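Give me the 3D structure for ABC transporter substrate-binding protein.
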Amino acid sequence: MAVVATTSLFALAGCAGDAATGSSDDPITIGWSLQLSGPIGPGSEYMVTAAQKAVDDINEAGGVHVDGTSRPLELKVIDNRSEVPTVTDQTRSLILEDEVDALFGPVITEFSVAGAAIAEQYSIPYFISSSPIDGFRAANPSGWTYAWNLFSSEKTQAETAVAGMVAADSNKKVALFSDTSNDGVTQHDTYVAELETNGFEIVADATFPLNTTDFSAAVTEAKASGADIAIAITFPVDGGNLIKEFKAQQFAPKIAQFPKSADGALWPGIAGTLGVGALGTGTWGVEDRGEGAEELDAYMTDAGAPVPLIAQGAHYYALVQFYAAAIEAAGSTDPAAVNDVIPTLTVDTVSGPVHFTDENVSEIPVYTWQWTGTTAEDMTPVQVFPNIGTALVTPPPGLAG
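Predicted structure for ABC transporter substrate-binding protein (401 residues):
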């Protein structure tokens, strides 16, 4: 295996080769259709902040050197308004009209897969994060060629979430809630298998379409089941509506897992203080970070990014680092040449070592966090499993009393 490593957070070394496209003065462009507005938009600007920081750091260190010349990187980001068809149109436009050299994709599987299909059609390297990798693989059973995913798997998320509950005080009875999206179906089945393997009993199992607003029947069933544990596999807005119904019916489980809702920065605004004590799964744990992580963490904190979005942003910083290293290894910006070299590389990044397997995924570790705080404004997640000093609090304070 060839190994290409960044020498520091800001500099890239060992550059050689001849660019296949563009002159020595032309920027190397990464196009990005991203949810900057619409229901998924809030907070996405911080992913751009992190990626742009990576671009700026590399450019300030001399850019990407190809055959003795230096070329700058640039990002071209456009808002898809949280609309899947717009992702398709914008990705095609970035390729055909803007002639970008590579692409970043939006978050969440339904959106990222829409862009990936276009990247595959036109043979352009396409990098994503914040889209669970099992759903990404399932969306194209024949396998991806040009789409590459740096994130965690649904299986690892479920394993970590369930492992963190094994020693907790509960009757091990679970009320499960899940939506019918691709992610929801995949995660539902993964959680069921993991729960049963670890001796938990599923006593209520409600499914519903995205954007459901009436959860009364599902919560009534869960409350009657006697479950001490609630696991809600829902997108953020649905998760907020669901936890409000918990409170309305005085359903106060000892453990409340919201792996798709409480894993992001939207949670305090959507759930308010009802969400204090809810559990989510996070990435970029302190023990999993690479060189330059401390500096990036400080930079993102100063920019006002909440903890979950610092983590998401870090992975896009890492993707910029990886793409720059791939250009160096290929000795070219030619999409096919860059794509061919990607699976041969292991690149040290702020997210730790990144290596894409023959399934076009690079899996990153996850941990369980619990939301703390007394107001929506001061809510923040803290790691509780693996335990690094902060123990799980049960029952969730937001639902108790």
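The chain has two domains: 28-152+288-363, 155-285+366-385. Let me know if you want a second pass.
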